[in-house]
Design goal:
This protein is an alpha/beta fold and 248 residues long. The chain has helices spanning 37-53, 68-77, 92-106, 125-133, 189-195, 234-243, and strands spanning 2-6, 9-11, 18-20, 25-27, 33-35, 56-62, 81-85, 110-114, 136-147, 150-157, 160-167, 170-174, 200-203.
Length: 248
């Protein structure tokens, strides 16, 4: 079984976020980047298939040379090889088009992507890939087992979970539940050393239209100071809730 895991290169949640060019571009200076958490769940699940069913794992990313440390970390965790499509991930359709080309040429059985990335939270790429290729697709996937070409999976839906049966080839948008946080792999020294010799292929992008662009970014408004009201001053509390917070 050949598995392709799509890896997004996203800012660590502890990084301070700023914007440049009149708030139209994300400022990467001083920002620490990591594997997108939803993608890391998928990678860890793929390694389970590698260990239990002899699957081979390729990781792929659309991005510039600055994303290669993230791919090398995925190799250190256990992926067999990596692909970087040498392009700026301008919008979801552009990224989906690049990944679809990699999938088509690689004849992968299972494609695992995160249901959304931590940076823009668009949640569109896995479904777009499936639409381009005509593959089966499951989003918000929390469990997957593969027996030959048959697949059983569980996905989250509003108010509960749904168990489905489908067949390969399959694209999933994965999330926490594929594995738990305690099951995530930390690269050890042997993995880090081995990753240096694993193949990282750089591909040039295929032609694809860019249909959207970021016009402006805005940070959330800063939180106002807290006002404390004495427990026995009910009139003041009602006044503040009515005239300032305007919630009653």
């Amino acid at each position: 079984m050949k598995i392709l895991v799509c890896i997004s290169h996203v800012p660590d949640t502890t990084s301070k976020i700023n914007f440049t060019s009149d708030d139209s571009q994300f400022d990467t200076n001083g920002v620490q980047f990591v594997i997108n958490p939803n993608d890391e769940y998928g990678l860890t699940r793929a390694i389970w298939f590698q260990e239990q069913q002899g699957a081979t794992i390729t990781v792929v990313n659309v991005g510039g040379p600055e994303t290669e440390p993230t791919l090398r970390k995925a190799l250190a965790i256990g992926a067999n090889d990596a692909i970087r499509v040498n392009a700026n991930p301008t919008d979801s359709f552009f990224v989906a088009k690049q990944l679809a080309e990699v999938i088509k040429n690689g004849a992968y059985d299972v494609i695992i992507a995160g249901k959304e990335s931590l940076d823009y939270n668009g949640g569109m790429v896995p479904g777009m890939i499936a639409g381009i290729l005509g593959y089966n697709f499951l989003n918000s996937c929390t469990s997957i087992t593969v027996d030959g070409t048959n697949v059983k999976a569980i996905r989250e839906i509003d108010g509960g979970r749904e168990t489905v049966s489908t067949t390969l080839p399959l694209i999933i948008g994965g999330q926490k539940g594929l594995v738990e946080e305690k099951d995530l792999r930390i690269p050890n020294m042997r993995g880090i050393m081995t990753a240096r010799s694993k193949t990282l292929t750089v591909l040039e992008p295929v032609e694809a239209s860019v249909n959207t662009k970021a016009v402006r970014f805005e940070k959330p408004a800063p939180k106002s100071a807290v006002k404390l009201v004495a427990a026995d001053n009910l009139d003041e509390l009602i006044n503040l809730l009515h005239n300032e917070a305007k919630v009653i």
